[in-house]
Amino acid sequence: MKIGRKLTIGFSTLVFLFVVLGLFAARQVAYHEKMLDELYQHPFAVSNCLREIRAHVFAMHHGMADLAGATDAVAQGAASERVEGADAMLRARMDVVAERYLGDAESVSTLTAQLDRWRQTRSRTVDLARAGRRDQAMALTFKEGGAHVADVDRQIEALIQFANNKALELHASTRAAAQQATYVLFGLIILSAVLALVGGWMIRASIAGPLSRTVAMVSELGQGNLSRRLDMDENDEVGRLAAALDAMAARLETKDADLRQSHDALEKQTELLRQEMTERQAIEEQLRHAEKMQAIGHLAGGVAHDFNNQLMGIMACAEILQKRLATRSPLQRYATTIIEAAHRAAEVTEQLLAFARKGRRPTETVDLHGIISEVVALLEHSVDKRIEISRRADGATAKVIGDPGRLQSALLNLAIN
């Protein structure tokens, strides 16, 4: 049997059971709604209205007593308004009772007639009170009016008792119907559960089990185990799916072997290409560095030549100035300082030219004390006069092998910074 037919039968059975349960539940709900509606119409509404009518009757009777004993028109008017207000609410509640009372309508008519007769007695009492005959009005209120109130109260009590008995009857009927519905529903639910379990077991045995094996195989295929096979004998959709998966796994296994061989060959070619690329990048990097250094060398050489030409003019002018000044002239030391600074600048240009020629400058024995003295003499004429420069050379001899121009530049940078 195909999976679609199996699922159709199983779900159709469940749907049929759910429809039966739904129809039965709808029928029971309609019945209980009817019972609740009757409970609302009779016990609740009627009983409450009758109790409110009784309260209004007593309020009207007390109001009539106040009206009969009132000594002025204002008190009579206030008592009359209370009585009329209570009478209006009483009439409204009587309309509800007449509409929703489930018993004999003659009982309600009798109560209505009794209230009308009492209303006539109240009218006579009001006329006597307004005529100033308070004693007669009081006697009419408590005698004839009291008799009407007692009759009304007895009739209201009878109606309330009937309403209570009707409520108990409806409650008992509703409970019996609810118990019966509960038993039937429980039986249908148990039957549905049993059928659902049986159908679930059948579906699991014929569908879920093979599908679980299929999912496990797909998972193993995803992890790389291409030798796994299902080998199912079922002739349904799951069986055909298993056969297709077995065939696909066999093809994948063959393709995987071919791909592994191609991958090994590709890795070898990639490694050779990587080595060639590495060597080529190293050669290109060396070439770029050589071109960069060559460009910097040309630039440094041009700058050094231009700067050296300017220094030649400065040195020539300073030497001419030195020769023309008197030997003891105070300006002699300034000319000497200019010539020494020009020589140091010339040494800097020599360094640039040596860099441009990619050569090394020769080193010589240098007296550090002399270098320090020259630097101090230069700083005394260039820094702020408020800065005091002191020199202390404790060593007897301070000679090193080096470049005097670079040493002077280093000391000047230290002092200035």
Which helices and strands occur, and which strands form pairs?
Layout: H1 3-68, H2 73-100, H3 105-130, H4 134-223, H5 237-324, H6 332-356, E1 364-367, H7 368-380, E2 399-402, H8 404-416
Helix pairs in contact: 1-2, 1-4, 2-3, 3-4, 4-5, 5-6, 7-8
Summarize the structure in words.
The chain is built from eight helices and two strands, in the order ααααααβαβα. Helices cover 84% and strands 2% of the residues. The protein starts with a helix and ends with a helix. The protein has a two-stranded antiparallel sheet. It has 417 residues and is mostly helical. It is elongated and about 160 Å long.
Main β-sheet description: 2 strands, antiparallel
Pairing-aware structural class of the strands and helices?
A: mainly alpha
- What is the approximate shape? elongated
Report Rg.
Answer: 62 Å
Q: Which series of helices and strands comes N to C? A: HHHHHHEHEH
Q: What is the rounded distance between the termini? A: 98 Å
- The overall average pLDDT, rounded, is 77
Residue stretches low in confidence (pLDDT < 50, at least 5 long) are none
Strand content: under 5%
Oligomer: single chain
What's the helical proportion of residues? over 70%
Count of helical regions: 8
Strands, count:
2
Spatial order of the strands in the main sheet?
1-2
